[in-house]
Amino acid sequence: MSLKNIETNPILERLPKHLTQFIKPQNYEDYSAIDQAVWRYAMRKNVDYLSQVAHHSYLDGLKQTGISIDAIPNMYGMNRILKEIGWAAVAVDGFIPPNAFMEFQAYNVLVIASDIRQLEHIEYTPAPDIIHEGAGHAPIIANPEYAEYLRRFGEIGCKAISSAKDYELYDAVRHLSIIKEAPNTPQDEIDKAEKKVEDLQQNMGKPSEMALIRNLHWWTVEYGLIGTLEQPKIYGAGLLSSIGESAWCMTDKVKKLPYSIEATFQDFDITKPQPQLFVTPDFAHLSLVLEEFANTMALRTGGASAVNKLIESNALGTIELSTGLQISGVFTNVIETNGKVHYIQTTGKTALANRDKELVGHSTLEHPEGFGSPIGKLKGINLAIEDMSPRDLRAYDIYEGETVTLEFEGNITVTGEIITGTRNLQGKIILISFKNCTVKHNDTVLFKPEWGQYDMAVGKEVISGYSGPADLHSFDLISHKISSNTIHEEKSPEKLELISLYKQVRDYREGTNKTISRTKVLEQLQDKFPNDWLLPVELYELAFKGNEKELCTSILNHLETIKQNRPKIGHLIDDGIKIVNEEAVLS
After folding, report:
1. Which of 44, 239, 296, 485 is the most buried (most CB within 10 A)?
2. 553 within 8 A of 539, measured Cβ to Cβ
3. Residue 132 annotated in ligand binding
């Protein structure tokens, strides 16, 4: 995806290519007049209610980010305005992989699913949409403390290691969100997809780092409350954008808990309202909990558990050794005792780096089949190779041209002729290359002379492990295949006719066509679309403002009939009328 179609913003220009593959054009002209009416209703209802219960940053942020109540935000305009607060926004197609989502955040980029929910799902949709992203996430980032939390969360979160089952669950949730929002999906297909998600959720095994950090993301960024347990305010985007749940969450039916690291272990169900929510005293506290969690991640703990997490993920990851050498690949084996790593092995393309920069001569071209190396100290020698001075190295025959047998703890032996060593900028030796080399673990041969040059990593311990490569340029990351695309409705002639009526009313309200007869529009609705409730609410607003009492009465009578026929949407009609009446009192 080229960034040519997007309003330029220096932040977007910094994005690496592997993230730009997820960006899609917004195609603003694809939003119908019904879509615009859905946005307007949801925003009017939200702002009316949220002005009392949302954190003050929300209303301030709406003004600052230029998000209009009357029209779906245009990415061009958003990027112009977000540039002022050091952020940017991009459009994507529904859910994207969690690591990519977090990495966008690390670059100060807000990911916005540009589709909008159907009128039938106006109160809540499990699919990410522009009401959720644009009206929920964007306004709060105008608060600097929160914006920094979001950026830092992305930076740490994109390094979290997923399990193979996480990837499976992501695909299943994405599929479910698409078919649930798609028009005319057979109920049995939805039931089947819901069951798949449920079965996966119940059989995830031990939660991965990504599963745990996603819990933190859910209970803060999506469903967070702020303030006191007795009188909390809303700041989570899921609540700010759900006209049903923002009211429900403020009742005693939803348990309020103080936000702490314990939230990591509280799972959530994306398809149901949340039975409990967490309250942070302030935005700074969010960062304290995030750092507390980061201290438990392989990123900071290293050791055998870091390598094992990467093996379980079955995906591209990196370990860093105490010398700063970074090994990136798919890890498949570790030899360890009591949590101490003696040997690591990758399979397939592997690259070596230092300080996130690939080492010359150690790309995936040089290591296409994998990479294995002993880690740790030599047996019976307290001084690690990395800490040896040139004199020490000479004393142990670790010297160019010498044929040597190095016996490591954990019964790993390396026998061969030393070709050369590679050092880092601090002068520490990080890699030793051998020819005619044999590597063994007890009697098991791990490397044979006929396989060519053997490069041995130097490092007494694994200090870090994380998802993704050390150097982004080492691997082809432009390979994302979306398992399913958002389904767009094929509009029937009837639907096009209804959209045309919505457009007439919108044009009248905006003053672009004042010749439209609203009485005639009402008659057409009563005749052809007797169950549509949102357009009569919009007509009522215009008639009420124009003091047209007779038309108001006709519309209210029609809405009463709809309420009797469709009792489930009665509260939506009542709320729409209430907002119109309240606005009249305020003006």
Report:
1. 239
2. no
3. yes
| 407 annotated ligand binder | no
Tokens linked to 110: 């807000």
- For residue 251, give the nearest of 234, 237, 266, 236 by alpha carbon: 234
Q: Which residues pair with 358 in a beta bridge?
A: 353
**Rounded Cα distance, 372 and 408, in Å:** 14
Tokens of 577: 């009328």
- Which residue type occupies 195? K
* pTM, to two decimals: 0.86
- Spatial distance between the Cα atoms of 315 and 159, rounded to a whole number of angstroms: 12
What's the gap between Cα 302 and its chain centre? Answer: 24
> Greatest CA span in the chain, whole angstroms?
103
DSSP letters, 440-487, are EETTEEEE-GGG--EEEE--SSEEEEEES-SSGGGS-------SSPPP
CATH code of 12-163+204-279, in short, is 1.10.800.10
Is 137 known to sit in a ligand binding site?
A: yes
Those residues with Cβ within 8 angstroms of residue 134's Cβ, 6 or more apart along the chain or in another chain: 67, 72, 73, 78, 89, 112
Burial 348-385 (b: 16+ CB within 10 A, else e): ebbbbbbeeebbeebbbebbeebbbbbbbbbeeeeebb
Nearest to 477 by CA among 17, 29, 9: 17
Q: Are 456 and 432 in contact (CB under 8 A)?
A: yes
Angstrom distances, CA of residue 61 to CA of 56, 137, 142, 143, 516: 9, 10, 5, 7, 36
- Distance from C-alpha of 82 to C-alpha of 147, rounded to nearest angstrom: 12
Query: For 26-78, what is each residue's pLDDT tens digit?
Result: 889 999 999 999 999 988 888 888 888 999 998 888 878 778 889 998 888 88
List the one residue out of 359, 362, 323 whose CA is nearest residue 346: 362
Residue 299 has phi, psi (to 5 degrees) of: -50, -40
Token output for 555: 């519309």
Rounded Cα distance between 191 and 176, Å, is: 9
CA distance 268 to 36: 31
Tens of pLDDT, residues 173-228: 777 777 776 767 788 888 888 888 777 777 767 889 998 999 999 999 999 999 99
